[in-house]
Amino acid sequence: MKKVKKIMALMLAMVMVLSMAIPAMAQTVGTAAEGKGSITIENAAKGETYGLVKLFDATLTKDSTATTDASGIAYTGTIPDELKSIFEKDEAGNIHVKDGVTDQQVTDAVTAWAKKQTASPTAVSDGSALTFEGLDYGYYAVITSQGATVTIDSTKPTATVVDKNTKEPSATKEVDPAKGSIGDTVTYTATFNAPNYLQNEETDKSEQVVSYIIEDTLPAFLSDVAITSVKVIETPAQEAQGEEGEDGYVPATAEVSTDLSSSYTAFTNKKIEIPWVAETVPTEDHKYTSLYKNGSQIVITYTAKITSDAAIGAGNVNKVSLKPQVDRGNGKVPFSETDKWNDEATIYTHAAALQKKALSETGDNLAGAEFSFKGLIVTGKPGMYTVVSYDPSSTANGTVMKCDANGKLVIAGINADSDNPIKLTGTETKAPDGFNKLPGTFELTTIVMSTETTTTHGSQTTYYDADGKIVDVETEGGSSITRNDITAISDIPAASIQPVVNNKGSELPSTGGIGTTMFYVIGAVLVIGAGVILISRRRMNMQ
Question: Rounded to an integer, what is the distance from CA 314 to the centroid of its chain?
């Protein structure tokens, strides 16, 4: 009886019997017949191919003996060589699990063996419950992407197995570009791995996803948000690999996806909901037909403008969350009450600053100067302006800005790039009283307000706090990140402010002004006039 109990325990461990009844919404393969059994895959994944492999035959008897389990079932047949360390036969020829072999070892060994066999029958799931009927009694392996082993016992010849094809959802968010000026349009791309079933850790049961809610924080530093694309990708596109005609050549395949863009053009209350099952009444046990292949991806892209609410220097974080909805018998409810699957994307915008100074030994600050920069439209007050828009390709001068009483001018919300510094083309439209106005144009380099440096150690990782002090060191290897933050306009150090120098004095004729031209013109007129008079007198004398 010891072996009988062990077989029974093994069968119970490898089969999750959810219901004896086959759901009303179902996909059936084969024909039911007296004396035959069936296997139902309760949460078959849409688009997944399932197949059966029979390992042992089963004989059902009414009389339970030492060679059968408690339900009167005996397993017979040939034990494959690779499974002889798992199973053995008794004197009557019935098959048992060897003493000392764990349930997990049986599962792993049978699954590995079954995946090498040719399954029959097979079927591609349409997303509803999948039932194989007309089966001989036996010990079967159901071949799926992860594999599961089930049996048919004597009292319930219909067995139900849960395909634990559940995969963990995930969320990834990116923004392009990650740096910009106020008024710039950026594009966000959010990608979600979206399985059809999720494993409930509290009940240890798979739950079918009926819809996915996608929430986005959409902070105040974003405006004019517009969804440009919503797709469900069931099969990603694949490029051809290798050379045609050679072994290992894999032909290119096109993406298989559903475009839902026309149904979603904007976020409603900062979220959208995507149905994940067919719009039909569920079965009594609240099962639906999934709309998409298990493991599909949801990809959403949307655009937004950076507003003047954006923090200067500090990161502007925008978070997206994936929230599955399930049906537990009383309608749609969240699978999890926590914000479990999410990701963030960060936008940075920076500044430019200049200090008007006199060309002298003391380099005194000068008030009263005014400037404009090509393509730069701003708003604000003397000394402090915020970008409205910036067009680097424009040749037209933008808004005229005034320095403050100390000659400082700060422009907040302009793009910056540490690898390729951006330079604004400026013109001094008014010089301080008593000083020369700058001729032509000059360049003002934008300030990268926040930088991050990664140092690879190879044998340790060093952690720093916000003040740059070492708080922890790991010696296993890795890298450390050092931040150099100027996260507010008031934190801009003097060394980062670009000086713009003026010469003292008024504009002199030597600079090419109208004074020199006038002298040249008057001089030329006098010379010509003297010449005319001289020639006229000579002619009169000759007469």
Answer: 21
C-alpha 159: how far from its chain's center? 41
Q: For residue 157, how many C-alpha atoms fall within 13 Å in the half-sphere facing its CB?
A: 20
Q: DSSP assignment of 37-48, as one string? A: EEEEETTPPTT-
Distance CA 261, CA 134 (A): 44
What is the structure's pLDDT at 84? 94
Report how far residue 193's alpha carbon sits from residue 253's, in angstroms, rounded to the nearest whole number: 20
Buried b (16+ CB within 10 A) or exposed e, 514-525: eeeeeeeeeeee
Which ranges constitute the DSSP H helices of 80-214? 103-114
Rounded to two decimals, the pTM is 0.68
Q: Structural domains in the chain? A: 2-161 (2.60.40), 170-240+252-347 (2.60.40.740), 350-449+489-502 (2.60.40.10), 451-485 (no CATH)
Q: Region of 70 please: left (phi>0), alpha (psi -120 to 50) or beta.
A: alpha
If pLDDT is split at 50, 70 and 90, which confidence band does 111 have? confident
Distances (CA, A) of 460 to 84, 470, 480: 48, 13, 8
Higher pLDDT pick, 197 / 228: 228
Which are the contacts of 259, defined by CB distance < 8 A and separation ≥ 6? 229, 230, 231
Single-letter amino acid code for the residue at 271: K
d(CA 142, CA 160): 11
What's the mean pLDDT when you consider all of the chain?
A: 80
Per-residue confidence (pLDDT) for residue 15, from 0 to 100: 34
Q: Which of 512, 510, 534, 514 is nearest to 522 (CA)?
A: 514
pLDDT tens, residue by residue, 406-442? 999 999 999 988 777 789 999 999 999 989 899 999 9
Question: Sorting pLDDT into bands at 50, 70 and 90, what band is 347?
Answer: very high
Structure tokens at 51: 């197949």
